Amino acid sequence: MIDKSKIDEIVSSYKKPAIATICSHSSLQIFHGARQEGIKSIGICLKGKERMYDAFPLAKPDEFIFVNSYSDLPASELVARNAIIVPHGSFVEYMGEKLDDFPVPVLGNRHSLMWERSREKMFDWIYKAGLRTPKVFLDPRQIDRPVIVKFPGAKGGAGYIVVNSYEEYREKVGERKAMVQEFMTGVRAYPHYFYTPLGKKGYPASNGSLELLGVDRRIESNADEIGRALHSGAHVPMGFTVVANEPMVLRESLLPEYLDIGKRVAEAADKLFGGIPGPFCVETIISDKMEVFTFEISARIVAGTNIFGNGSPYSVYTDGNPLSMGRRIAMEINRAAKAKKLDEIVY
Ligand SMILES: Nc1ncnc2c1ncn2[C@@H]1O[C@H](COP(=O)(O)OP(=O)(O)O)[C@@H](O)[C@H]1O
Ligand SMILES: [Mg+2]
Predict the structure, then answer these.
(1) Cβ(218) to ligand 1 under 6 A?
(2) For the packed helices 255-273 and 110-117, what is the interaxial angle rounded to 10 degrees?
């Protein structure tokens, strides 16, 4: 992985930081937030894809850099434009391991993206945070209930399967390597956090503070509509491809636990790899006993924040202004630049 000192050197040479990201995922929100805070935005784009932004002029980046492939980004051009990359789900996916050595400042800590890449490492992080998780079956012979089988690198949609017994596991999974988790029933909730090491305003966590900006629920195909199929007598396998997000407001009595979950994840990140400045999300399922189970961490902005381009029901209580995650990111970059502390929020 590229040395932190190298990234610090680059960012210290910046006169006026700009925000850059790949034109996908949550880019509308990121560019819109940058514009609201007076920061120049740069869209890294495949030719032809820029036309979408004509429909949304307030969320159109100030400049485009056109590329032939998202896995081959022009680092020196980005640095010449004083770009700080805001990594989102598509960015992380397209860049893969190339991100580790990419010589451009990235908002947050690129170690956290490396930890999120491996499901085993991610679970070490979740365990270190002391969170409740679905039971993980290390030995598939012990499967005694419905389990979800997650293959390495697979994204929920394609590739995950649900089985009910070791026999079914043998038949459908065979010798393939996978993580086997208890299939939890309950209500899924995906809280959006922002951790800042730069201030104490907010929920105390580590040396800084934590904000809960919003919560969404993913609508996954076909899992979330499968009742219709079952009722009609069809027996189709369940799929988990995210197609949309919908807003959620949690029971207020759950908020203390959700704030604690965010704090624990941020503090475990501190101990394991030096912290997680910026946005992250924890993926949870709440049982009917009101127990919260964590099954994933996303160490970056998640697409569920797109619901709250004009602020979430929680953000109005944090800042007084409706705040999107995109705008919160831009505020943080402005604040850090002013205090000459950009090195504390990028790697
Ligand atoms: N242990 C579990 N029990 C029930 N459903 C789960 C469990 N783990 C994941 N899911 C469902 O599968 C989806 C995708 O799983 P996830 O681990 O988030 O993979 P990824 O985000 O990498 O695609 C989740 O959003 C959730 O709906
Ligand atoms: Mg997920």
Answers:
(1) yes
(2) 100
Yes or no: say if 283 and 131 are a contact pair by the CB < 8 Å rule: no
| Residue 293 alpha carbon, nearest atom of ligand 1 | 1
Q: Which helix (H) or strand (E) holds 176?
A: none
- pLDDT band, residue 156 (cuts 50/70/90): low
pLDDT in tens, 62-100: 999 999 999 889 999 999 999 999 999 999 999 999 999
> CA distances (Å), 102 to each of 2, 29, 71, 73, 132, in order?
7, 24, 11, 9, 35
Domains and CATH numbers, the chain: 4-131+186-344 (3.30.470.20), 136-182 (3.30.1490)
Answer yes or no: is the C-beta of 155 below 6 A from any ligand 1 atom.
yes
Is there an atom of ligand 1 within 6 Å of 146 CB?
A: no
The residue nearest atom 15 of ligand 1, judged by CA position, is 156
Ligand nearest to the CA of 155: 1
CA of 16 to the centre of ligand 2 (A): 35
Whole-angstrom distance, CA of residue 32 vs CA of residue 230: 42
- Is residue 233's pLDDT more than 70? yes
CA angle at 323 for the pair 61 and 25, rounded to the nearest 5°: 45
Distance (angstroms) between ligand 2 centre and the Cα of 120 equals: 14
CA-CA-CA-CA dihedral for 312, 317, 320, 326, to nearest 10: -40
Mutate to test the pocket of ligand 1, among 295, 300, 302 (most ligand atoms within 8 A of CB): 295
Q: Cα separation of 3 and 347, whole Å? A: 9
CB 118 within 8 A of CB 125: no
pTM attached to this predicted model: 0.97
